[in-house]
Specification:
about 55 residues, 4-stranded antiparallel sheet, elongated, binds zinc ion
């Protein structure tokens, strides 16, 4: 049984350069209300780029 209201969900991280949806991350909206932005490797750009949360 789930108890409480834990509003956690998956967000999609989009490469800021080529707009590919490269990663999915689980995030708690309660702990992290702001948009995620992570430096991750993009296989389409073949380098590390900024990946932002898609809305
Ligand atoms: Zn890219």
């Amino acid at each position: 049984m789930a108890k409480g209201k834990d509003i956690r969900g998956n967000v999609t991280l989009v490469c800021s350069e080529c707009k590919q949806k490269n990663y999915r991350e689980e995030k708690s909206k309660r702990n992290t209300p702001e948009r995620l932005s992570l430096n991750k490797y993009c296989k389409f750009c073949r380098k590390r780029t900024e990946h932002k949360e898609e809305k």
